[in-house]
């Protein structure tokens, strides 16, 4: 990764605003900024300057701030020009910077340089993007905690504990011709088990953090006229979908984004499932099945007065097995039965009324459970933001350690056990970027916004 060039980008959001920020980072940052501003104020102090283009014409006047390497966000010389927030003006400034020797930054390149220069580890750099993308107050807090290094600290602790175990096992390799069987030591087994427990805890926290970032997609499905669209509107709190007593009202998929206790949810209303000659409705039903297969959970809605009909049973059996289903028995106001959660041999059923709103709080609670979202456990002390990539790495680490443990129990050769532990260690290192490939880095930073 070459960082001998100097990058420039407009760091504020596109569009017009009171202030617009041009950022420069790299060895020529000061020289380029001097070309634009004439002189620079002392490091870390703001100075008012005229910003000029290559011809010397004044483009704007504003504040300049500069940071000397390594004491900056990127760890390089870094200059920020605060101009007025006009898109054309800022573009002229960017062009002037390029004329003076800068190159336009790729998305995420400032954070990438911060990572390369050891200012942030990879999980922290990702947290920067998560903080910018945060969709709720809870998500902001979680991203901030990751950025502070909470997640990284826990990972480092686990990695260090694993290293000690590895030293033990590799010691057994080195002294294999002695009489003592190091691997049979109960303390080693205990240490490994305890470590595995700590990893499980971190996995649980990480999956909470992932939910907070990525949320969950839920499809509402069922026969026509059972109240699917009414339920969507109730959850969303707006009249998003058309509701009518005519079966077959909904055809298109309708997506609504909502937030429950800080967790983002995408709920999709679908066409009622039935046999029909109407080609448009048939297409709607095809899309409904399609979305049910892609969703992370299905809310299957039926009319409580006829919720166990043969047709409902048939449709429920057609739902993809691997996707959790919550059966909603709607229109409790008409059936007269109490709103409640019913645990049946077939799974969880929930009786409510989408029209009156009775039982909707129970539904919200069930949705939280479906998502594995536990706001009590995820209080401000423990939650941090996380990504699928992190979860996958933790799962892989767990699998390697489990294999190692089985190896210990079944007297597998020390080499195999040591190798499994090494692979587990490597997985942990990939999360913080201690072990990383260029491909991985490229795919992470390219999803950042420009100027970050
Ligand atoms: N009394 C009562 N009526 C309801 C309830 N939920 C929905 N309805 C009524 O049932 C009818 C159908 O509601 P929709 O929400 O359009 O049903 P749908 O499942 O989306 O129907 P399709 O889009 O045709 O598949 C409407 O007249 C709603 O007002 C409920 O909980 N109680
Ligand atoms: Mg509908």
From TrEMBL:
State where the protein is found: Cytoplasm
Q: Per its UniProt record, what Gene3D superfamilies does this chain match?
A: P-loop containing nucleotide triphosphate hydrolases, Probable tRNA modification gtpase trme, domain 1, tRNA modification GTPase MnmE domain 2
Keyword field: Cytoplasm, GTP-binding, Hydrolase, Magnesium, Metal-binding, Nucleotide-binding, Potassium, tRNA processing
Transmembrane intervals: none
Provide the cofactor list for this protein: K(+)
- Database matches in Pfam families: MMR_HSR1, MnmE_helical, TrmE_N
Binding of GTP, residues: 225-230, 244-250, 269-272
Entry similarity comment: Belongs to the TRAFAC class TrmE-Era-EngA-EngB-Septin-like GTPase superfamily. TrmE GTPase family.
Please describe the quaternary structure of this protein: Homodimer. Heterotetramer of two MnmE and two MnmG subunits.
Protein name from the UniProt record:
tRNA modification GTPase MnmE
Per the record, the gene is mnmE
